[in-house]
TrEMBL record:
Domain HTTM-like: 15-277
KW Manganese (keyword) present: no
InterPro entries: HTTM-like (IPR011020)
Record-given protein name: HTTM-like domain-containing protein
Record's keyword terms, sorted: Membrane, Transmembrane, Transmembrane helix
CC annotations in GO: endomembrane system
Transmembrane segments: 28-49, 69-91, 98-115, 121-141, 153-173, 215-234, 241-258, 264-281, 302-323, 343-362
Organism domain of life: Bacteria
Compartments in which it is found: Endomembrane system
Membrane topology: Multi-pass membrane protein
Lineage: Bacteria, Pseudomonadati, Bacteroidota, Cytophagia, Cytophagales
Amino acid sequence: MATRSNIFDKIIFDSFQLTPESLGLYRILYALFLLIFGVPNFTWISRFPDVFYNPPLLSLHTFFSGFPSYWFLLLVSLGTCISTVLLLFGYKTRLTSILLALFIFTGKSFAYSFGKIDHDFLIWIIPLVMSFSNWGAAYSLDAKLKHQDRVVQNWPVVLLALILSFAMFSAGLPKLLGGWLDISTHAVRGHFLREFYVNERQDLLAPFFLNLNSALVWEFFDYAGVFLEVFFIFAIIRPNLFRFFVICAIFFHVFNYLMLNIAFSINIILYLLFVDWGMIISKLRKHRMLLSIERAINFRSLLIVGLLYTSFYLIYITATESVTFNVSPLRFVLEDLMNLDSLIFSGIVIFLGLIVAVLNLIHFVSKKKDFSDSTIPKYMHN
């Protein structure tokens, strides 16, 4: 029993060991990702009548008999925006992370009250879980003000790995039980044809796959998808194996994007938590970029960025009459300025994640070592 307990302790507390610098950089990346792609606007919800109100079981429906008012949703949206800016600069990081999660949970409770829960729920869990990791220990105002020590916790990263694994498993198990491995049928091809003809997803490489008639290739797609999703959960016992599965998942999303024209670009930010940050930090340090990041973290920058972004955000969501759903207003502006449609813009995010995945894979193969940070300080071993 003691041995079994030691094994679980090792997986929970010794896996995915990251330095304060690794977590600090990931915090900045996560906040930037939200500011550009994912700070949602919830005010559109108030435009719908209560007849559409069909909240999920775990939500705030107990306190509301219908959709809340515009002003309530505006406050929730602004709270999400301001919390994200504060998280970017790492000010009162733990409190800010929890508040950000609460604001998003509140808004999403109503956004999901139309009878559909989107795939992006994994992304909104990150700040709540990572608030316990001390990801404000480096590259933050808290670090400069010495509000937080340098001791970081590994178990929140393991918890997110478990959540991701169960999400993958819950997607793969129905496929496994539903006959995806039956060699007499081609499930992926059937799904592709439905998307091509019914939903008219006919861009990128879709025409090429339409003319692909190899039964062996289509059956390989069936098996590869099921095996990736089902066995994801077993990879968590080894950090290097789990990170390899994460890299495979990024390739999987690139494949879905090119063939099915479906872009789960928002999932990329969760995958990037598990990459080899030690390798990335060493390259950034070589080009003195870490020093620039350190200098940019100050109260003057916080005030300027906070005022500019919050003003833009408030003006946009109050001036537009369009239904913006759960996408950052800045994304709409960038798409217009760059003259890109939503599919291509999402593809840019996916391929940026692919570049990181390829760099990590090359680093792993060339160094022949675990994907964990190359140097783990003694203070991280509790």
